[in-house]
Design a protein that fits this description.
This protein is 38% helix and 17% strand. It is built from twelve helices and twelve strands. A hairpin with a 5-residue loop joins strand 7 and strand 8. The protein is globular, with a radius of gyration of 27 Å. The two termini are 43 Å apart. The structure holds zinc ion (ZN) (2 copies). One zinc ion binds next to helix 10.
Length: 390
């Protein structure tokens, strides 16, 4: 169906192998891996062709860096568009179209630009070709964070980052007049750089109103709010819990830079009603025997700080928490040669700081236990695990 896409992916896989096996090209590795993930997000030869056309037309600055690829029978980006055209002409009409987008799926910035034929910059992007307006709601800045209400309405902030916003400025007018002018409006939400959840088609569902917020210069200014609702009647899209948690960390850093007065000013406008959100999350099952064994092994003493457990639980047992040295999220196994029992304080610390010294210390503690127990089998596996991961 899309043999052109397969060809492109095989071509870049060859590039990665070549770079990995030749130290002199190592400095290009990060770049190629990034490109690989981007290309993997493209599903249709038509979109692929359009992407590579840009390299053909512009004399891009990396062309020289990658000129060596040809010596190894690998096609450089500048030649890919012509190759696809010559070899897969019937596939050039295979395109991801707006109606192929799936609500709740993530798309990259370039994909959005290519599908809607709109700019790849800005929060409100007008495309005359597809007669659409693409809205991006970024959840990575707490100062401009449009949230859904419990009734499934997103009060979307208009265009303009400094000074009072005007209804006549840029695409604010397009959005205000979208129903009258039959312009379709589509929404994407972003919690992470270059990842956009598609939220479907939206439409104005109430009166446009003004509000007051702080602009990026720190001044109080008037902003325009557009109440939007999804056309399919459903409420917000369900996003990954991890993505929301990551965006919270990013926002926290921004808030930390504000003065206490600025924060207080922000607090005044906060709606006290807590907004609930349905999220997708991955549950990693852990074995109760492993965690109990680990805690018994520690015998009430934290494996990291060496102090006694800070309190006893309701059953009178010293309270420690089991922790995986190579975490489950990183793909670590749930086994006694990867677990420790630590106090809640150390547990928080290790997850927040991820200090290499602490991690090495915990590895040593585990090894000591295994040696004491003369558990040869586990020692062997322990060596294998940490050799690979250190
Ligand atoms: Zn501790
Ligand atoms: Zn843990």
């Amino acid at each position: 169906m899309n043999n052109g896409v397969d060809f492109v992916l095989k071509n870049i896989e060859k590039t990665i192998k070549l770079i990995e096996n030749n130290e002199e090209y190592n400095y290009l590795k990060a770049k190629v891996i990034r490109e690989y993930y981007y290309l993997k997000s493209i599903k249709y030869t038509g979109n692929m062709y359009e992407y590579f056309l840009k390299f053909k037309e512009s004399n891009h600055k990396y062309a020289k860096d990658f000129a060596f690829l040809k010596d190894f029978g690998i096609l450089p980006n500048e030649e890919m568009a012509d190759y696809l055209k010559d070899n897969y002409p019937e596939e050039l009409n295979n395109f991801c179209r707006v109606e192929d987008l799936i609500v709740g799926n993530k798309y990259s910035n370039n994909e959005i630009a290519s599908i809607f034929k709109c700019s790849n910059m800005g929060g409100m992007r007008r495309s005359k070709t597809t007669n659409s307006l693409v809205l991006i709601a970024k959840h990575t800045n707490p100062l401009y964070d449009d949230q859904w209400t419990e009734d499934g309405i997103l009060n979307y902030t208009g265009m303009g980052t400094i000074g009072d916003q005007s209804i006549n400025f840029g695409q604010n007018k397009t959005l205000a007049m979208s129903a009258q002018n039959n312009i379709k409006v589509y929404l994407f939400e972003s919690y992470k750089e270059n990842e956009y959840y598609y939220c479907g088609e939206v439409a104005l569902c109430g009166n446009i109103y003004t509000d007051y917020e702080i602009d990026s210069d720190g001044n109080r200014r008037q902003v325009i709010k557009f109440p939007l609702k999804r056309v399919d009647g459903l409420s917000e899209t369900i996003v990954n819990k991890e993505d929301i948690e990551n965006s919270e960390k990013v926002k926290e850093k921004i808030v930390q830079k504000l003065s206490q007065d600025e924060i207080k000013d922000k607090i005044k406008n906060i709606n006290p009603q807590v907004i609930t959100k349905e999220v997708k999350s991955i549950y990693r099952e852990r074995n109760q025997f492993i965690s109990e064994y680990t805690k018994n092994r520690a015998n009430g003493i934290c494996d990291l700080c060496g102090k006694e457990a800070p309190f006893k639980d309701k059953n009178g047992n010293p309270y420690l928490e089991s922790h995986h040295v190579i975490t489950l999220a990183e793909g670590g196994p749930d086994v006694i040669y990867n677990t420790v029992a630590i106090c809640p304080n150390c547990h928080r610390k290790i997850h927040i700081l991820k200090d290499k010294k602490d991690i090495l210390k915990l590895q040593k503690v585990i090894l000591k236990y295994l040696l004491n127990e003369e558990d040869k089998e586990s020692i062997e596996k322990y060596n294998e695990l940490f050799e690979k991961n250190n």
